[in-house]
Amino acid sequence: MSTSIIPQLVRKDLRLARGAILTFGLVSLAAMLLVPLLHGHIPDWALINLGFILLVGPAATCGIVLAMKTNVFEREKSTQAFIMSLPVTMREYTHAKLLVNLPVFVVFWLAVSAVAFYLAFGLGLFPPGAAPFITMVFLGVLVAYCCILSASLVFQSLGATVLAILLFELATSAYLWTVAYSEPIARHVYGATATWNATALSIVAVQVVVAVAVIAATVHIQGAKRDCI
């Protein structure tokens, strides 16, 4: 079996998705440049809400579109059946899909997170005490994406993936609001210093562990499959 099959599959998907990646990259870059320019021209509360949508929207949409194109639509167009007729295992196929989707989204996520932290604290939109909670918000975005990506790979169904998007978006909002109002977090949000107490550190650690565990579980489930029908 050729050891180059995974890079070949990765290159194939990147070639097919490069238009979407470039488009969303340009939209995301435009949003990153636009949001700071709005500072001082609209109320801070409006900038916070609009900025979050403008920054996270293109990154999240790119991640979902890429997962749909490379995982769900490939199955529906019967392209996957042809790929699996080649000397490639389901585990290798899964690794290739993860190596396409995860790095692209993580690059978007890191860039958006960096700009968001600059806007939040560099421009004084939030007090320093909000740093732990803002960290949880952006880690929550990453966890939700990992779960959606996993669903698109494991089920390779449009309906199941759309349902996963809805469920994980709602679940992320629900648990983040619960965290925001929990006493160990809420009492420090408006503080003059960032307080990384045991609760904050535990929540961040759990988010990281869940993201890693979801990807590991996806590889395991996919590896146990004997066919792609």
Features:
mainly alpha, 8 helices, 229 residues
Question: Would you write up a description of this structure?
Answer:
It is built from 8 helices and no strands. With 229 residues, it is an all-alpha fold. The model has no long low-confidence stretch (mean pLDDT 91).
User: How many beta strands in the DSSP annotation?
Assistant: 0
Structural class by SSE content: mainly alpha
Low-confidence stretches: none
Distance between the termini: 22 Å
Assembly status: single chain
Rounded average pLDDT: 91
Spell out the helices and strands N to C: HHHHHHHH
Radius of gyration: 19 Å
Using the alpha-carbon principal axes, give the shape: globular
How would a crystallographer describe the biggest sheet? Answer: none
Helix-residue proportion: over 70%
Percent of residues in beta strands? under 5%
The number of helical segments is 8
Topology:
Elements: H1 5-38, H2 44-76, H3 79-84, H4 90-122, H5 131-154, H6 158-181, H7 183-186, H8 198-224
Helix pairs in contact: 1-2, 1-4, 2-4, 2-5, 4-5, 4-8, 5-6, 5-8
In short:
The protein is an all-alpha fold. Helix content is 81%, strand content 0%.
